[in-house]
Predict the structure.
Amino acid sequence: MYQPIFYHRIEHVLRICLEETFHGTEFQNKLTMYIEILETQGTEQAHQQFPEIVCHLEACEVCRTVVADTQSLLHEMEEIENVMPRDVEKTPPVQEDRKLQAPPLSDQFLNTLVTELDNDDIVGIILGGSYVRDEATPYSDVDLACFVADSSKLQPKRFLYREGRLVSIASKSIEGIRSDLTKPESAILFTAGRRRILLDKDGSVTKLMQDIDEFQWKPLQTAADKYASFHMMLLAEDVHKVLSALLTSNQLALAYIVGKLLFGLTGIVAVQRGILVKSDSTYYQQVYEMVGQASAWTYYHRIASGIDMAATVRERGMACLRLYQETAQLLRPVLQAEHREVVEEAVSVIDHARIGE
């Protein structure tokens, strides 16, 4: 059986196939539904429900070829999906494969780092990241945060190597983190992570970690909705840049702007839905689970990010435009009046674009 996103896959494939022979949005929508019924209910049902499509296909050799190519691609997708779950089940979890695990950090190694980094400005040091989660690989960095009492003493982030490990050293202030807890776009990035206190001179770091553990998202939801609405409006500019790059076949410009738009849309959904990010490696998975693994949003996101299919840059660009539309639909209930007109117009511009016509 096909996945619930079957219709969206037909739509995406058709948009690619019909770029050079575009008959209009209404025709494309009917052809999409025709193929869906053809594949799920059989030829007789499809012909009964869409006799005008049948007549068109008899007269248009190009569209007959498009239908045949689309069916072939859909069958290939189904075969891949039928194989993938079995392959995944046979693959042992990363945590169980010792070859992929880094040895734990010794107390001596950590104590030596603390001694090296400590000075009169620092009030505490914590360890975060994959080593605290017991998910470190041989290439994982050692994530340290050094807290200073005076924000004017903050230092730029720096890196160093110790015993073959890359050590990441961030400079933080207690007041700065407390301020970040009031901003939804920053609160999602560190409230869900695990931490280990290595140094706490005055108890302020321990108190901060306790407050983070007790963090509640609900008071930030209104601010999160406003953030998402505002940034959806801002991304209308990137939508037009993607359309321009598609129109002029500027592959380099398209590759850049697709990455920018994809990053922005993912962040908007994460913030508005209050997804407390556990780590970089779980970020996309957490968003997919929140939006729905079988949703159209997830489907287009996977294509735009290059996870599914051997998509060309052009295909990723078109998927990213669809992702903007799906994001607008998700956020429709929270779009602010001052942003809604621009977002809805951008959605309409995508619908009426004649890329490759």
Summary: The beta strands are 122-128, 142-148, 158-162, 165-173, 196-200. Confidence is low (pLDDT under 50) at residues 84-95. The longest strand covers residues 165-173. The first helix runs from residue 6 to 17.
